Amino acid sequence: MSDKKERWLLTGVTAIYFCLLMLCPAKAAEAVSGGMEMFIRKLVPVLFPYMVLSHFIGTYGLLDPLNTLLPVGKLFRMDACAFSAFAVGHLCGYPLGAKMTAKSVRLGRLDRNRGALLCGVSSGASPAFLLHVVGSMLWGDIRLGAVLWAAQIGFGLLAGGIAGRQYRSVPAEKQTSQETVSFSQCFCEAVGGSALQLVAIGGYIVFFTLLTALLPFGSVGGTLASVILEFSSGAEKAAVLGGYAGLFLTGFSVGFGGLSVLAQTANMLSGTEIPLRVYVLCRAGCGVFCGTAAVAFGLLFPEILLRGQPAAGTFPIETGTAPVWAAWLLGMMWYCMGMRRGAGR
Question: Which pTM value belongs to this model?
Answer without folding.
Answer: 0.77
